[in-house]
């Protein structure tokens, strides 16, 4: 059985990705931040499907914890699946925040940089010894990093998410001798808890986003989760260094 690590899988896109991966027969190690119960709930849903999953805590903003996390992953792999390696990494965990350029502080900039870029970069590096040859890495970027989705207030968030697209290409090149594929996706507006439950707090923004989406609705986590599972699967074995826009045609 193959095993995937999905960060930030206690809700939203991460949870849906973990479920879709499990539906295809793979084991899942999922991470949670402050909400352990939601992580355990995702594990319970996977088990209802007949799958196997383990939930581990991870502070993506503190790289000093990554070595201990790797040890916890190694223990979970051996205890649950009787193996020392896993096949897939989904760098999904993150935060959503906005600030106009003139109001951006160094603390704000540093927090987004630490969680959205430094975290995935050094977590992936730390996990590489356990990642099997022929595996796959998937970076979850954002539609805000694309040229057709520029919105005021997202200069830091979009810039850091855009850096993930560059990192994807370089990792694909450097890890190709091991047969490891590296791709990214850029979800459009998706009904998640990102941005402190923004869609729940400000439902009035939804009609405008729907009007700008070619397929005529807001994205759901399952829409993105299915794409993630497909890009990790053997169906995408000849795809690397690519970004796929998963937005239903936002701003088309």
From TrEMBL:
<dbReference type="InterPro" id="IPR036291">
    <property type="entry name" value="NAD(P)-bd_dom_sf"/>
</dbReference>
<dbReference type="GO" id="GO:0016491">
    <property type="term" value="F:oxidoreductase activity"/>
</dbReference>
<dbReference type="Pfam" id="PF13561">
    <property type="entry name" value="adh_short_C2"/>
</dbReference>
<comment type="similarity">
    <text>Belongs to the short-chain dehydrogenases/reductases (SDR) family.</text>
</comment>
<keyword id="KW-0560">Oxidoreductase</keyword>
<dbReference type="InterPro" id="IPR002347">
    <property type="entry name" value="SDR_fam"/>
</dbReference>
<protein>
    <submittedName>
        <fullName>SDR family oxidoreductase</fullName>
    </submittedName>
</protein>
């Amino acid at each position: 059985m193959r095993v995937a690590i999905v960060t930030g899988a206690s809700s939203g896109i991460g949870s849906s990705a973990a479920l879709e991966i499990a539906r295809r027969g793979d084991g899942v190690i999922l991470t949670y931040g402050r909400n352990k119960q939601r992580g355990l709930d995702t594990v319970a849903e996977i088990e209802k499907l007949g799958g196997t999953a383990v939930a581990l805590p991870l502070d993506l903003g503190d790289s000093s914890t990554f070595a201990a996390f790797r040890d916890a992953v190694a223990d979970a792999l051996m205890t649950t699946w009787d193996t020392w390696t896993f096949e897939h990494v989904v760098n999904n965990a993150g935060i959503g925040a906005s600030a106009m350029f003139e109001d951006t502080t160094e603390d704000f900039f540093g927090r987004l940089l630490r969680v959205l870029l430094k975290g995935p970069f050094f977590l992936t590096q730390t996990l590489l010894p356990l990642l099997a040859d022929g595996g796959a890495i998937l970076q979850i970027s954002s539609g805000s990093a694309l040229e057709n989705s520029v919105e005021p207030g997202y200069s830091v968030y979009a810039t850091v998410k855009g850096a993930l697209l560059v990192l994807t290409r370089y990792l694909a090149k450097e890890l190709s001798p091991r047969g490891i594929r590296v791709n990214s996706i850029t979800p459009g507006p998706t009904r998640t808890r990102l941005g402190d439950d923004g869609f729940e707090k400000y439902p009035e923004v939804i009609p405008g986003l729907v009007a700008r989406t070619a397929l005529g609705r807001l994205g759901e986590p399952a829409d993105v989760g299915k794409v993630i599972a497909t890009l990790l699967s053997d169906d995408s074995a000849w795809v690397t260094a690519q970004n796929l826009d998963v937005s239903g045609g936002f701003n088309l």
